Amino acid sequence: MQNKEIVLTQEGLKKLQEEIERLSTAEREAVAERIREARDFGDISENSEYDAAKNDQAMLEHRIGQLEEKLRRARVIKESEISRDKVSVGVTVTLRDLDYEEDFTYQLVGSAEADPSNHKLSNESPVGQAILGKAVGDTVTVPAPIGSVRYEVLSIEVV
Q1: Does domain 6-76 fall into CATH 1.10.287.180?
Q2: 28-39 and 48-73 helices, crossing angle to 10°
Q3: Average pLDDT for 68-82
């Protein structure tokens, strides 16, 4: 796995820690119980329930390992680092698509937290990179598969 720093908001850190906790406790116990039950079915060499539970256990442990590695490489954005004048990770920014006169509001987050369907835009995405460091009133042009898209920064809020 890369040693690249993972940028997280405080909210992202909390969610990551909660997921690790959930997987390490409740999910581990549930898989362990499935393995115990499958052993009770008899010969494990021909036991598909046992094989499936062991596969689930391996995938669970892999996921926990991935999340713990993210946590080790995480750098949490402090509130003092969040600019109120310029777009930075942690702000909520409203953009206007200048061609279609539509407004979009996103929270700019690190790539590990990105979730566009929940209005969380990665700082490493094309739009995220284009708007980083911009101020209200600035315009940016972002290359897209459909051609270039122009946005104007309408507002920057620290939530």
Answers
A1: yes
A2: 160
A3: 92
Query: Could you tell me where the DSSP H helices lie in the chain?
Result: 10-22, 28-39, 48-73, 126-131
Please report, for residues 40, 63, 133, 134, the alpha-carbon distance to residue 9 in angstroms, rounded to integers and kept in the order given. 46, 21, 17, 19
Beta-bridged to residue 82, according to DSSP, are none
Could you count the other beta carbons within 10 Å of the beta carbon of residue 13? 19
% of the chain surpassing 70 pLDDT? 99
Structure tokens given for 107: 């929270």
Confidence of residue 115 (pLDDT cuts 50, 70, 90): very high
* CATH of segment(s) 79-158: 3.10.50.30
